[in-house]
Specification:
By secondary structure, this protein is α/β, with parallel strands linked by helices. Helices cover 43% and strands 18% of the residues. The strands form two sheets. A six-stranded mixed sheet has the order 2-1-3-10-4-11, with helices on both faces. Helix 6 (160-172) packs across helix 11 (293-314). It is globular.
């Protein structure tokens, strides 16, 4: 009997190892929970192209937008954990949305296996040049002397620009007014026109900064931007500990075998060494990442806790 059980266990282990070594045995789908053309989509397609060439199976990107990314993320959460359906997730789908919606179709922390952090988008605080401030300290001084006068645009309630503004209000003790738009571009247009005072972004605002139509004040991320190394971070400029980034990571359904996760993580790290991709990310105001699954897991937990507190304090709800 003992020999039979041992043989069965060895056979099971052999099958598991064989399945992992043969991965992927079929085309792989990377779900992007937003429309095509954004940074989430660009990153997914870059990873898909790289992995397709190296792993011998097509990696196909599928855009499933809706409900601030919840529809696409839920598709992956409920998929078979075989490594054939993946999610290019974001700060929204994997950290913030759980606090914005009273009903979530998936459990943010339990229904996914983290693979790797892929990249983080830079958020730069910029103002219309008419705002009487040239740096972060003078902007904060003006905001405190004129409570409720300064306005900031975002791509919508709960968007990264909105959260960046709410965190600044809390940490810097300032009263600034949120003006939501249906997308970042429209908000930036109104900041350039002077109808709104400021916003947080980089890819959309960079041409306007170069043209002198917007004034760079400070970077919301923990590190300075490689595109504007002379612009300090907000944390350096009077708000210690302040940090916001629009980050993106690759996830699989919970229960995906560790061997498959490790193989996918290696492909992400390899793809992020491609000079063409690095150049494109830089042009979009994004920084490559690459992390272990364990590092991404800890990061998601910290972001989940951080933004939950901000959302509760600000009273933000999307339903």
């Amino acid at each position: 009997m003992k020999k039979t059980i041992t043989a069965l266990l060895l056979a099971a282990c052999g099958l598991t190892a064989h399945g992992a070594s043969d991965y992927p045995s079929a085309p792989v789908r990377i779900v992007v929970p937003f429309q095509a053309g954004g940074l989430t989509d660009i990153l997914a397609r870059a990873i898909a192209q790289h992995a397709s060439l190296r792993l011998g199976q097509p990696f196909v990107v599928e855009n499933k937008p809706g409900a601030s990314g919840n529809i696409g993320a839920d598709t992956v959460a409920k998929s078979k954990p075989d490594g054939l359906t993946l999610l290019m997730g974001s700060i929204g789908t994997n950290a913030v949305n759980a606090h914005l919606f009273s009903r979530m179709p998936y459990d943010t922390l339990k229904d996914f296996t983290p693979i790797s952090l892929v990249a983080s988008g830079t958020l730069m605080l910029v103002t219309n040049p008419a705002v009487p401030a040239t740096d972060m300290r003078s902007l904060l001084a003006y905001a405190r002397a004129n409570p409720g006068k300064l306005t900031y645009a975002s791509g919508g309630a709960g968007a990264s620009q909105h959260l960046a503004g709410e965190l600044l209000k809390t940490m810097a003790n300032v009263d600034i007014v949120h003006v939501p738009y249906k997308g970042v571009v429209q908000g930036v247009t109104d900041v350039v026109a002077g109808q709104v005072n400021m916003t947080f972004d980089l890819a959309t605002v960079e041409p306007h900064i170069r043209a002198g139509k917007l004034r760079p004040i400070a970077v919301a991320n923990a590190r300075r931007s490689s595109a504007f190394p002379e612009v300090p971070t907000i944390a350096e400029s009077g708000v210690p500990g302040y940090e916001v980034s629009a980050w993106y990571g690759l996830f699989a359904p919970a229960g995906t075998p560790p061997a498959i996760v490790q193989r996918l993580q290696a492909e992400v790290v390899s793809a992020l060494k491609d000079p063409a991709l690095l150049q494109r990310l830089s042009a979009l105001g994004a920084e490559p990442a690459g992390s272990t699954p364990e590092e991404l897991s800890r990061f998601v937990r910290s972001e989940y806790d951080k933004w939950g507190k901000v959302v509760r304090q600000a009273g933000i709800r999307l339903d």
